[in-house]
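Ticket reopened. Same input as before:
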Amino acid sequence: MNNTTHRTYSLQMLFVAIILLAASIKSNATEAQIDASVTFTQALTIVAEELEFGIFEFSLNASANEITLSSSDDSITCSNTSEYTCPSSGKSGAIDIAGGVGSLINISCEPNGVVSNGSDTLTLTQVKLYTGTVETSCAGIGVPSISLALGGLSTQNIVKLGAKLIIPDTGVGSTGEYTTSNSGGQAIAVRVLYQ
Amino acid sequence: MKKFFLIAFLAFSIPANYAQSVDLNFGAIEFIVGGGNFNATLDPVTGSIACNNSSYFTCQSFGTPGNTTILGDSGSLISIRCRATARISNGSSTFDVGASEVYIVGQSKVRCTGLNNEILTHTISANPSSNIIYWGGRLKVRGTGNSDFSGLYTTNGGGNSRPQTIRIVFL
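Engineering reply: fixed in the latest deploy. New output:
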């Protein structure tokens, strides 16, 4: 290698070294990016409306009766119409659900309840839910009876309830208003959860 | 050729300095539409979350502070700077994560005041767990009106989102 070539080669290596040194000197600082996140979920809110069978008259010593309030059309059917005067319709219960539009929810419910006049009680059973198209029996809290996607309109998220009121062979017992909120009563439990 | 390799060795003998990061996470927050303004403050020391407006918002008690681990030679002195505000977005709505604070074990937490303002110095320890910078801040929900603003919000969620930046300068 002659002197010119050698000098050129040395200068090239020196140039490379300077670049490397400059790069390493500039690397005394660094930046770390840290990300952040949060998930917002619209809370489920539920407004419940009571289930109302209405007013029934019964004859002295009237015996058993099974009174069904339909969840789909509010109609009332009595098994014993000879000793009882039953209204043709009542008012189904309802739960009006608000939450994230498009969110999937599960609804589960107890199949039973109890109404009381403060001294005597009567059993509610065969509780059913109605979405507007499908009627489903309640199978217990934690066992979904209905799954649906919440709509954007409030009318899309209403589920109605019906049930059967059982009067035993011994009859009503005593007159008066029977409710789930009286002493001895038990409301129908309904649970709504996001999937 | 010997000259070249000797110079190259000297150039690369200055220690490298870089960091690895873990995201800050506020977790899941439930809200009722129309609840107005809301703040959730995540403490970088404990990870606890303090929230206001509990009538309309439900937040977790604890989240995950963001953190970054400084890697460098033990005994090296560093200067720390950081942004006061990051921003999270779901591509449609954007919220600030402001009042940023950072914390290193053995020191008090300090408020971030921008990338050009030194707020902390630290001597790199031989124990890696002593070289972690933790980040916390205040999530501010504003201007939601009566809208359903559900969703996942992140600092790389589009819109005006922006991560936190920790600037580490070796002194």
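Chain A has one helix and 15 strands. Residues 22-26 of chain A have pLDDT under 50 and may be disordered. Please confirm and we'll close it.
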